């Protein structure tokens, strides 16, 4: 089966075509500056990357250009649109309505739209992307894979805020968590690597990238995660503050004469390791600056690691013990020093860090000693493949249902 994976932002659209039988990526790319002018990047696996400008007044034109490129007689990977058997869409916020991936019927799309309030920046563009695909591929099944779905197993004690309960009832204000597709993929792959069933182990997944989150996966089910109503809560991130005393917002707005929106912009876009260091949100720049003696870059790196360590301690207790602590995403997979800064402090939990084994990037591997009671691992995430697998599962189920009837 050939599956098109779509990840829509407000002015961008990432895509991949995966052959689900071999799980081989046939082609991938990105549309940028949608609604402004339009730039398309395309890479057929094994060939040179192509980049060109093309008018993209809206997402429909972007999808149309992607399909045209995929069918290009010289560089394409399909001959006709019919060769795309299904489309898997990355959806950001499913609220409490979606605990698993689902076929995107009109009823489902209306339900997604009903929680747009919870993710006003992210959900509307994904719905626009789905509509564009449906218009151009009206008979192709579309599946939605939600970033929040894997965390829907969290118990009330983990998801409820210490706010008047009526706000949860009236507005669904609670903790949801994000990066769920990654946390699910990585925790399941960890079980495979350890030769165990997901039901039999407790895993802490540290998804450390530009946006970072950490989750406690007990017996294959998420019981807690660090992001909340929005992806702002929890760890210190590239530009997001993570947990702060909410009073900081009122205090800063008054002192700096900012509106609420302006203050939230600071918390979302000018804070995190960028805000602390004044150098960059990129850990490569921070590492270089710290090595040259930049004190604030060092504080940013230390504060980032300290917050991760605190969550690992909390989640170990929350699950009544942990079998494996896993690092993934841009920083988790590639930043050897940040991994070391975190892993060195986990000895008290029975996780013995192996400094010599830690010297690698971008691949699977153990970074704990062979005898370590709690295993420390690096497992690269692959959200597109996870979306592809869910899409195939749902579409195959549909075909089986139809045959059964
Ligand atoms: P992601 O959001 O998962 O794509 O992660 C992006 C972040 O990963 C970047 O902002 C960098 O901070 C970090 N990163 C990527 N490659 C490296 C590397 N080789 N060393 C350190 N950090 C890296």
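Sequence proposed for the structure above (405 residues):
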């Amino acid at each position: 089966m050939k599956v098109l994976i779509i990840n829509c932002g407000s002015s961008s659209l990432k895509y991949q075509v995966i052959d689900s039988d071999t799980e081989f990526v046939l082609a991938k790319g990105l549309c940028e500056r949608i609604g402004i002018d339009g730039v398309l990047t395309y890479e057929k696996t094994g060939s040179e990357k192509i980049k060109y400008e093309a008018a993209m007044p809206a997402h429909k034109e972007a999808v149309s250009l992607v399909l045209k490129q995929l069918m290009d007689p010289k560089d394409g990977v399909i001959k006709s649109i019919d060769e795309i058997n299904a489309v898997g869409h990355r959806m950001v916020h499913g609220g409490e309505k979606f605990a698993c991936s689902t076929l995107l019927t009109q009823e489902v799309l209306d339900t997604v739209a009903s929680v747009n309030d919870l993710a006003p920046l992210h959900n509307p563009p994904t719905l626009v992307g789905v509509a564009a695909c449906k218009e151009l591929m009206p008979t192709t099944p579309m599946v939605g894979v939600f970033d929040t779905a894997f965390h829907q197993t969290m118990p009330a004690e983990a998801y409820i805020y210490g706010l008047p309960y009526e706000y949860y009832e009236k507005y669904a204000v609670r903790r949801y968590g994000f990066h769920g597709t990654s946390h699910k993929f990585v925790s399941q792959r960890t079980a495979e690597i350890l030769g165990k069933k997901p039901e039999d182990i407790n895993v802490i997944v540290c998804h450390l990238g530009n946006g970072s989150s950490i989750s406690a996966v007990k017996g294959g089910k998420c019981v807690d995660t660090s992001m909340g109503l929005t992806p702002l809560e929890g760890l210190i991130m590239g530009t997001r503050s993570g947990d702060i005393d909410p009073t900081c917002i009122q205090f800063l707005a008054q002192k700096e004469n900012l509106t609420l929106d302006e203050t939230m912009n600071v918390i979302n876009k000018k804070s995190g390791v960028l805000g602390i260091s004044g150098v960059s949100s990129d850990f490569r720049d921070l590492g270089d600056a710290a090595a040259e003696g930049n004190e604030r870059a060092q504080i940013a790196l230390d504060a980032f690691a300290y917050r991760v360590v605190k969550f690992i301690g909390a989640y170990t207790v929350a699950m009544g013990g942990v079998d494996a602590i896993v690092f993934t995403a841009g920083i988790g997979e590639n930043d050897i020093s940040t991994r070391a800064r975190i892993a060195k402090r986990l000895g008290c939990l029975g996780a013995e860090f192996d400094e010599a084994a830690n010297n690698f990037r971008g691949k699977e591997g153990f970074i704990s000693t062979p005898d370590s009671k709690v295993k420390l691992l690096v497992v690269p995430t692959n959200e597109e493949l996870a979306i592809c697998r869910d899409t195939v599962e749902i579409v195959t189920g549909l075909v089986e249902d139809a045959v059964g009837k």
